Amino acid sequence: MDSPRLDDDFVIYRSKFRDLRHMDERFCFSRVTSHKKKDGDPYPCNNPVETNLRRFTYQELVKATDEFKSELDKGAFGIVYKGIVGTKYVAVKKLESLVQDVHKEFKAEVNTIARTHHKNLVQLLGYCDDGEKRLLLVYEYMSKGNLALFLFGDMRPSWKQRTYILLGVVKGLTYLHEDCTNQIIHCDIKPQNILLDEYYNAKIADFGLAKLLMINQSRTNTGIRGTKGYVAPEWFRNIPVTFKVDVYSFGVLLFEIISCRKSVVFDDDAEDVAVLTDLAWDCYKEGKLDVFVKDDLEALDDIEKLTTYMMVGLWCVQENPSLRPTMKKVILMLEGEIEVTEPPCPYP
Q1: Which of these is catalytic: 9, 41, 130, 188?
Q2: Class of 20-26+143-334 per CATH?
Q3: Which residue from 16, 21, 23, 32 is spatially nearest to 245, judged by alpha carbons?
Q4: What is the pTM of this model?
Q5: Is 188 a catalytic residue?
Q6: Which of 92, 130, 196, 200 is deepest in the core (most CB within 10 A)?
């Protein structure tokens, strides 16, 4: 599928705190992805996986995927294949490019993921643990694919669909931050990691896995990742990284959902870059929301909600992490339960 081109109104901007032209596609830094809310060891790594998940043998998954023939997606952790178990389709993630001595971390992360239960998270159904070269995760199958395919196709989805999906993402991310026994920082919120079921319910994928990713061992043994265009500025500074990195990435995602624009677009020579957060601020400041949503009449007919969403997004992408709201507050603002105050320029 061809990438959507910028229209004439999407001016080229240079970010004040990002040099995106020279950034690698993935970032790995020394931070912990999940935090125990109570005292004690959050990762009982010496224990077997203590869940009700089904443990598959490798051969069972070879058969379920017809020898890994039907590829659904490829990402930082490896390739996802379509399979069938019994009478149901499943998605089988074959983990690759993992940290050394990953077996211990794998058990811990599966334990963490298995204890999450929310309608806006992709459900883990089982796993395979047949040695470090045969680590696989089995998830529910999401028939409508990922949000990027939905947003950036030839036809613009309806405003009602987009706002429904947005609220689903907010609720799933709030659960990860606020309601899990172990707080989970996702670290890579983007459209490709939001999957849609047959009813277009949004479900967050790839949560709880960042500690398994192969990284530059010169800095840390704990990996956190991100994708250019969604990475919070504190990644590049010597300050602590918290759940507010997810809030920043969500703000970028919010702008993508309401505008059907990609977060970053390079010109043909990769010399200049169009940054969606910059455009969002300029359009808001100048009262040109019609430009931002590309004259989407459905969105403009719902101007009060559109304005609120723009303001919330601008709070989420503040350069200063302390100014960003929690996801719980984001829900309240989006649903009109609390007033949204005037946001400052995100990058003073």
Answers
A1: 188
A2: mainly alpha
A3: 32
A4: 0.83
A5: yes
A6: 92
